[in-house]
Amino acid sequence: MIRQIPLPLAFNPEHDFEEYHPGGNAEVVGHLRQTARGKGEHFIYLWGVPGLGKTHLLHACCREAHRAGLTVSFVPLLALKGFGAEVLDGLEDQDLVCLDDLDAIAGDEAWEQALFDLFNRLRDAGNGFIISSRIPPVELPVLLPDLKTRFSWGLTLCLREFSDTDKLAALSLRAKLLGLELPLAVGRFLLSNYRRDLPGLMALLEQLDQASLAAKRKLTIPFLKRYLEEYQ
What's the average model confidence in pLDDT over 125-132? Predict the structure, then answer.
């Protein structure tokens, strides 16, 4: 008997737009929300450098669509590449398909053909399609010319990088959701003395939340210094 492995096609319902600080990307988020609700552009190509929350936004789009009563599929290509391009079969029946990490399959003929066919089927059905990538469509190393042409048919959105002010605001929002008080001085200390990429800062914030709870201490700069010296 062949053992069937469940594919990770479900979106994370804990990620929503309210948990995302857009910074200079408010217009981008607005377009994504409209498409997620079935009211905006049918196709969006979302790109930006790593660490800006593309995956979070795709999960948020799926949650928004689900709330609106639409059927959705979240497709993490980096995780699914080893399963073969057949995982895209039948997705045209979904009201919205959010496909993450397009870079992972660029240059793979089988995947490109399957993606081209899915694109056409979704378009014919009038269903929504959101793709994320690290690079703009014109720079994507795609072998299939017709597929590259398809990427220019919809709306291309670029996420702007976050300023330090945006990073502080994003950290404060995450801290609030965790129930953690993050003083402004502590946030600035993190930016000045720790890795400056937002995913790394968010991960550290969650560790600090657990550490402060265990120690029954507020998050202060002395506490933060001791934690970083001991565990980082």
Answer: 96
